[in-house]
Amino acid sequence: MRRHLKLEVMNQVSTLNRITSAFVRLQYNIEELHVKKRNDDPNVSDMELIVNIDDEELLNILINKLKQQINVLSVEQHSA
């Protein structure tokens, strides 16, 4: 099932690497990735990911791992 994740992240070196590492550990692929710097705060970006994950439990594990990353400010799941 396609999942749409919206993240608010810090604009720092290694932010993308930390996020993709969570996917590598769970062996899931990112199908789409969009990142846009925010106008109101140049130190923060909005990141949108489309992933294909059928298992709700694994999705929750992934979301929790993303929330644990120091450069991730928030994670939300939306309908894809």
Tertiary shape: globular
Overall pLDDT level? 93
User: Which structural class do the helices and strands define?
Assistant: alpha+beta
- Proportion of residues in extended strands: 35-45%
Count the DSSP helices: 2
Query: Which assembly state applies to the chains in this document?
Result: single chain
Number of strands: 4
What is the CA-atom radius of gyration, in angstroms? 12 Å
Biggest sheet: strands side by side, in what order? Answer: 2-3-1-4
Distance between the first and last residues' Cα: 9 Å
Largest sheet: 4 strands, antiparallel
Percent helix range: 25-40%
Strand/helix succession:
EHEEHE
Low-pLDDT ranges:
none
Describe this structure in words.
The chain is of the alpha+beta class and 80 residues long. The protein contains 2 helices and 4 strands. The protein has helices spanning 15-26, 56-68; strands at residues 2-10, 30-37, 44-52, 72-79. It has a 4-stranded antiparallel β-sheet with strand order 2-3-1-4, covered by helices on one side. β2 and β3 (44-52) form a beta hairpin. α1 (15-26) packs antiparallel against α2. The radius of gyration is 12 Å and the shape is globular. The relative contact order is 0.36.
